[in-house]
Structures are given as structure tokens and as C-alpha cells.
Amino acid sequence: MAEDTHRVRVWDAPTRIFHWLLAACFAGDWLTRDARYLDVHEFFGYVIGALVAFRLVWGFAGTHWARFASFTFPASSAWRYLLALARARQAHYVGHNPAGSWSIYALLTLAALEVATGVVTLGAEKRLGVLAGGFGYRVGDIAHALHQWLAYAMLAVVAVHILGVLVGCLADRQNLIASMLTGYKRADSAIAAVEARRGVAVTLALALAFGALGYFRAYPMAAGAPRDRPPALPLDAVWKNECSDCHLDYHPSLLPARSWSRMFAEQKSHFGEDLGLSNETLRHLQAYAERNAAEALASPVAWKMATTVPAAAAPLRISATPYWEQRHASLDAATWERVHRSACGKCHRDAEAGRFAPGAIDINLGRSPVQKGG
Amino acid sequence: MPGLRNIALAAGLALLGMDATASAAPVDDLLQQFRAQGASGFTVAAGEQLWERKVIDPKTGQARRCALCHTADLRKKGKHASTGKVIEPMAPSVNPERLSDKAKIKKWLARNCKWTLGRECTPQEKGDVLTMLRSR
Q1: Complex prediction ipTM
Q2: Residue A154 and which of A2, A115, A216, A365 are 20 to 30 A apart at CA?
Q3: Measured between CB atoms, does A273 come within 8 Å of chain B?
Q4: How far is B18 from chain A (nearest CA, A)?
Q5: Yes or no, beta carbons of A276 and B110 under 8 Å apart
Q6: Can you tell me the distance from the alpha carbon of A302 to that of A252, in angstroms, rounded to the nearest whole number?
Q7: pTM
Q8: What are A105-159's pLDDT values in tens digits?
Q9: What residues contact A264, with CB distance under 8 A and at least 6 apart?
């Protein structure tokens, strides 16, 4: 590039706003990967889904350098570009170079897969979101694992992309990061400017703002928030009445049926108290517990309890189960001085409903982290 | 025989009526039962004494008394000794639901005497406590 260059608009406004929103949402999703922030994590995920969908449309309807047609290169040309770059003999590209274009396709694909596996995980494992209950818990476990590994893959591609941009800045001797903000690049004077298309960008930003308003209107989200499609956990009046005088009326789905059988067989020494329940009441409670114990898999926690309590064990305390211990491992002793282990409702706003959705954890009371991951 | 039928009807109504008054005043009804079991002369003072009586639980070494969970001031909320769950006030003057359900009274007298004293209460003790509670 000699004297016959000019500063020219290359990136239209919608492409730029797409780029930075995607970057922000990816960072946001990374920071909210802890289960306690699931509702916010979920929101960023929906935005990413919408952004990717928009970018696919814009790849055909956008201005010249935003169109896929302007940056579709065979893999071999990407390789040749990198080899030439290593010898500082690379050709100059106004839009995306062949290597960069491949990282863009990789990021778009990974982002779409992250949204897909995220929505399946949410629906299958947590019974929340648009696919609530649409898949079994096993599918949820697989989707969750994929979601995590794809996130690491995406983080790696983001790192390569950033590295590529920095190298590109040096190779092209111009600030490519500023280009993505302003839209302008220095290019051959034969290159014509693209339209800004600000209207589309403003529409995109407004849609996001209204979406956020709608989504976070009910914040903080407890059980029963509009996004929730809670599994039906039938409540029994006798159960509620008999249990709730002394403690939370723990939902029977929180322990396996063998635990409840033992609980009622040992009613004369129920945590140091003789319950003195009549045979009729006992039979009623036993039948309700058996129908709705963890094995009925009525909720995500039930699934975890049914599959993680050792078959030979019949724990009486929910807090003595491996899953409970795993989920609360990072809480310190001070927390348990503040909150009794039996008082689930102190931190779980949906404890009484028996659901224990990750988004319904009261972050202030829990204070220290509950557990990483979902 | 219309006369006999009327007598039967009257007897039936009387029984129903008795039942109605019994459920309207569950404490009176229970005190009557305790008297029938040989107890008598229920007093607030005796009930207070029992309420404050301390018994060491042989298994845990814990000093137990009614006030441990229900607090000494019956118009205040108490706290379950092991779960920490809030217990609504015992005094009917601030919590009208108290002493209104005969089955509940019997259940809790049985369960809580066993936990606190390590044995069931005698009809005399139950009558004294109910008399004291009703006065609050």
C-alpha cells in the first residue's frame, strides 16, 4: 500500500455491534458459569443465540465485507496465508483474511453449539427453559459435559482470534481493534466505502434492551418465575402437617424410598424424639413417600439422589448424602453457624416446593460459593 | 310409636350437641377426661412449676425443660432445640390457634412430655399445664 490509500468504512454498524455484543456475552457467560448465577448465564446464552442467528442472516443481507461471500476461502489458502505471514510476505486483505475467516466460522459454529447444548442441558438436567423436560436426565448429563468442553474449545479459539488480531495489527500496520469500533480501515483508494446501516444496529440494540427488561423484570428469580416450568411435585396435606411443625416438610423426592421406610420404622427414635404417630398416619405417610421418593425422578435433585446414594445405604439425613455433601463442600463452618443444615429454605428460596433450582439460591445468605458448575 | 322415635331423636341431638360443646372447648373436655382418670384440683401454679422443671436427658446430658424450646415468656415465639425452626407463641391470648384442637393437644402433650421429662405425663400434670397455658 503506497500513497494511493484512504480511510474507508469497511465494517457496517450491525457487524460491529454484533462483534462486541458477542464478545461481551461470551465473557458474561464465562463469569456466570457457577450454578448460582444460572439465570444470568442463561440470559447471555439466549442473546448469543439471537446474535448468531442475526449474523447468519447478515452474512447474506449485510454490506459487502460482512457477507460470507467476501470471506469464503478454502482451508489451503488459510494455510498459505499463515506461511506467507510467517515470512512477512502475506497479501493484504481489506476484509477478513483467509486465516481469520476460518476462526470466525469456528467461533460462529461453537457459539451455536454452545447455545444448543446449553438449552438441552437446561431442559434435560434442570427441567427449565424452552426444552424443559423434553429429554431425560441422562441426555442432560451428556449435554452438560459437551457444553463444558465446547466452552473450553471456544475459549481457545477466542485466544487464537485475539492473537491473530494482534499479529494482524503489526502486519498491516494499523489498529484493527479500533477498526472494529469505528468501522474504518486504511485501504486502497480503489476500495469503496460500505453503508453504515445504523438503523439495523439500533434495532438490534433496542431488541436486546427490551429482551433484558422482559427477562429480568422478575429478578431475582425464585421458583415460579416465568421461565420456569417446574416439575409437578405433589404435596400431601398430612405430610405437610406432620413434618412442618418441627422442620421443613422435606419433599420425599430428596431421599430414596429405603430411607423413608427406615425413617418410619424408626419413628420411636426420630432424631431423638418419639413421634408416636398412629398406624393409620404412618401408613399414609409411608405410601406417599414411596410414590414420590427419589426413584420417581420427579425433579433434577431426585435424579441425583436416586443415582448417587449407595444402594446399600439408607441415609436418614439429606445432608448425609454424597450429592448434598458435594454440592455444599465449599461452604465454611461459619455458614453452618449462621444456618442450620436442616433449614434448606434459608438459602434455597424454592426449598418448600422441593425443587432446589440453581437460580433460586439466595446468594447473600450462602455468601461463599456453593459449587462450581451446574 | 312416634313417642319412642322422638326420644331417640332427642337423644341423638343431645349426643350431637354434647359433641359440639366438647369441640368448642377442647381444654374443658380434656380436663374432664383427666378428672375421670383420678386427677383433680388443677392449678396455674402447679402448671408453672412443671413448665420450669429441669430434667437432664441421660443420653445427651442436655438439661431439658419446656422453656428450652417455648421460652419462659409464653407470649413470645420459641425455637425448636435441634432444628431451630420457629415455634409460634404458646399463649392463646396472642396465638388464638393454641388449645383449639383436641387431637393436637393430645399429640404434643404425649410427644413433648416424653422428650422433656423422659416419660409420659400423668393426668394431673397434663391438667395443670393446660390450666396454666389457658391462663396466658
Answers
A1: 0.73
A2: A216
A3: yes
A4: 26
A5: yes
A6: 9
A7: 0.68
A8: 999 999 999 999 999 999 888 878 888 878 888 899 899 999 999 999 999 999 9
A9: A277, A282, A285, A286, A289
